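Dear U.,

For the methods section draft, I wanted the exact inputs and outputs in one place so we can describe them consistently. I've listed the two proteins in the order they'll appear in the manuscript figures. Please don't edit the token lines directly; just add comments below if something needs changing.

First protein:
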Amino acid sequence: MKAMLQVYDPQSEEPEVFVAELPVTVGRGREAEIRLADWWVSRAHCQIDEVDGSLVVRDLGSKHGTLVNRHSIVESQLSPDDELMIGLTSLRVRIDREAGDRPLKSSIS
């Protein structure tokens, strides 16, 4: 499964993040595959994975939590057009069947 996250942050230089391999960790730290330059984001904030053919996000014990469609979650299935809020950064979930040849963009600043 290929996914694309559209970033809704006026200060972001990267408007899209293509996720070609799962699982992927999202956070502020060096160990995160997708790094967000947002001080409200924990070093290892959440993980996005595929479970039984569905995209799932799991909070990794972050200090400020992970929200899906403005609801705090521990784990939640993601559908196209869901809003994922990580720290102060808002991302829109897209399924991108053509993303296979595009590189993972790992740093959002």
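Second protein (the one for the lower panel):
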Amino acid sequence: MASFFLLIEVGFSGISTRVYLFEWLNFSLLNINISFFFDIVTVTMLFVVLFISFFVHFYSIEYMGHDPSYPRFMSYLSLFTFFMIFLVVSDNYLQMFIGWEGVGLSSYLLISFWYTRVLANKAAIKAMLVNRVGDLSLLTAMAIIFVVFGTLKYNIIFPIVQYFLDVDYVFLNFSFDLITLICFLLFIGAMGKSAQFGLHVWLPDAMEGPTPVSALIHAATMVTAGVFLVIRSSFLFEYSVSALIFVTLIGGITALFSSIIGAFQFDIKKIVAYSTCSQLGYMFFSAGLSVYTVSLFHLFNHAFF
């Protein structure tokens, strides 16, 4: 009940707060606590995840009730919901990455739920491999953030970004603007998770999983994790015009490209998949124009339809 009133207060008053749980890692160079961060973005995402997850679980009782592996399905679905909540309430990049990988694991398990089907297994492997490309980029961004800022905590990194605007960083023997490099790497990670142009190939095949999985994970919640990452990291993106232009271009191309392909599909689940790619493109397009409120609103709106 206390948690409910906390969310109500944060959501309606616009304040932000942190809830400390315990110390997780404490090395000489790295100190990470398990803490929850609540602001308007977190509350919006929590409402989407919890509300839709509840109804998908409820729907699955009847839809999957006659499946012999029904308990396994519900456990996977609940595991996904846990990791998605963990992702959105994190107050640092490392804790967020645990949730990020957790929803990827849950996606793999649920796509290949009917593991006797060859297409389901192939789709799960494709989803895993394509997402590893984005995850490698996100890990690289986190490593650079830690080397430069000495921490992975949002509340320490974001206020001091302005003091690193003229700093160059040597990456793969090339010199890049530090903030632009971090933003590009973060966005490539987001592209993998949110199936943007170039890394979109896994999402249509992911519909081989049971229909409740397609609704919850691959149309409403997990695929919006990339959009959430960009919105959460907006304090970084706002200092890189090049990165914002790149986000806008990829978002616009994906919105057009996916909608055209979707118009020529005959499988209803494939149509939903390409439609989702297109709508995610609109979200990134809005974020690239620095209209993060519109991006978050469309994320909320799209999750329900």
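Candidate sentences for the figure legend, describing the second protein: The mean pLDDT is 85. Strands lie at 17-26, 31-38, 168-171, 174-177.

Thanks,
Y.
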